[in-house]
């Protein structure tokens, strides 16, 4: 119900603004229509939403009076005006006779994974299904005057989330190593699954603007309070086989695993070699998990009781910033570490990585025994 009321409130504000725009137009004798020029801020670090996306689909904007942050208009789509660099709304909005405005833009529209609270706050809570993750971008232009926007209000969009992707390879998939690894999934663990971003400033940066802000996580946890199971994002992928058996000649090749995750920027503690499996047998700290099996010829080196893939984890140290892309590369032949253990164990590897071989091989000499033949 809160979401429905929230969207209804947004719709009511938007409709109220529409009903006022004729009055505003009459009061604005200079005909100063509000339009925007879309800029980008380091969008090449994550390429899902860029200027081409914005030019094709437009973006959404809310405006507030700078003096008291009362709403001027809300959740209004602005689309590209032909071949120009300007973006305009279907229902025109005009500058007030007095006072400056604060503008906040975003794309895609709020709802679902991204919600808009106070004028300068956004809550990002990416879905557990990472195939639905969106590359949300936001922009803010604060205390903008009509006089300073003759060519359109500039909006410098920035990526709100952190882009995380995984590549895997098998360094022992050659003839000498003879290990065959199969990957069927991946996940990130012990992290906040949501956060609130507060726009704090929009400052001059050369000819463009830079939108800045801060994150808070008060309403989100890194592990379940009852089960202590870490908060996770995971994905099942089609079999990725890493070997040099001819059918899957990927010896040493780094292969992409599934989709990228676009999650809330954050910093969390790292699992270390001295970390102890604690309450309910879980570790405390960030990790990346790979669901895999490893075989050596016909033997299962790493697999569950039925010979299928199982989870192995690798500790990571994450200091993820908004607008950055992070690529993790894992050599799965190492086998990783156990996800769970007893409360007295420290971090335990599945494999020690050592080849089985023999030394000090001896053959005992033949012992001469006595042999007699019985005579009749």
Shape: elongated
Point out poorly predicted stretches.
Answer: 1-31, 41-47
Q: Which structural class fits the helix and strand makeup?
A: mainly beta
Round the mean pLDDT to the nearest integer and report it. Answer: 76
What is the N-to-C succession of helices and strands?
HEHEEEEEEEEEEEEEEEEEEEEE
Identify the quaternary structure here: single chain
Largest sheet: 7 strands, mixed, barrel
Radius of gyration of CA atoms, rounded to a whole number: 30 Å
> Cα distance, first to last residue?
109 Å
The CATH topology of the largest domain? Immunoglobulin-like
Number of distinct helices = 2
Major sheet: arrangement of strands: 1-4-3-2-5-8-9
Compute the number of structural domains: 2
Q: Which second-level CATH architecture of the largest domain applies?
A: Sandwich
User: How many DSSP E strands?
Assistant: 22
Q: What is the CATH C-level name of the largest domain?
A: Mainly Beta
Residues in β-strands, percent: 35-45%
Helix share, percent: under 10%
């Amino acid at each position: 119900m809160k979401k429905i009321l929230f969207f209804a409130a947004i719709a009511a504000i938007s409709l109220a603004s529409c009903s006022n725009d004729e009055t505003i137009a009459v009061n604005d004798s200079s005909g100063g229509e509000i339009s925007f020029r879309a800029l980008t801020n380091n969008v090449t670090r994550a390429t899902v939403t860029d200027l081409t996306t914005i030019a094709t689909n437009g973006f959404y904007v809310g405006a507030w009076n700078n003096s008291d942050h009362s709403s001027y208009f809300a959740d209004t789509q602005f689309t590209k005006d032909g071949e120009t660099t300007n973006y305009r709304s279907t229902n025109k909005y005009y500058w007030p006779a007095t006072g400056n405005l604060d503008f906040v833009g975003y794309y895609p529209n709020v709802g679902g994974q991204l919600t808009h609270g106070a004028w300068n706050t956004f809550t990002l809570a990416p879905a557990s299904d990472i195939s639905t993750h969106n590359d949300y971008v936001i922009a803010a232009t604060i205390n903008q005057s009509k006089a300073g926007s003759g060519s359109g209000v500039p909006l410098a969009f920035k990526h709100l989330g952190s882009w995380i992707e995984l590549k895997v390879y098998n360094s022992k998939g050659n003839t000498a190593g003879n290990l065959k690894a199969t990957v069927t999934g991946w996940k990130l663990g012990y992290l906040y699954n949501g956060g609130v971003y507060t726009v704090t400033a929009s400052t001059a940066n050369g000819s463009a603007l830079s939108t800045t802000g801060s994150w808070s996580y008060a309403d989100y946890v890194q592990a379940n309070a009852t089960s202590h199971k870490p908060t996770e994002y995971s994905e099942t992928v089609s079999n990725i086989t890493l070997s040099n058996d001819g059918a899957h000649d990927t010896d040493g090749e780094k292969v992409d695993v599934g989709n990228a995750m676009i999650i809330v920027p954050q910093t969390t503690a790292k699992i270390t070699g001295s970390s102890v499996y604690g309450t309910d047998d879980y570790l405390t700290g960030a990790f990346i998990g790979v669901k895999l099996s490893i075989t050596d010829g016909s033997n299962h080196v790493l697999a569950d009781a039925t010979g299928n893939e199982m989870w192995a984890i690798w500790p990571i140290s994450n200091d993820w910033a908004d607008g950055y892309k992070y690529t993790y590369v894992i050599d799965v032949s190492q086998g990783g570490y156990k996800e769970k253990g007893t409360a007295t164990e420290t971090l335990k590897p599945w494999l020690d990585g050592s080849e089985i071989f023999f030394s000090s091989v001896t053959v005992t000499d033949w012992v001469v025994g006595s042999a007699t033949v019985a005579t009749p």
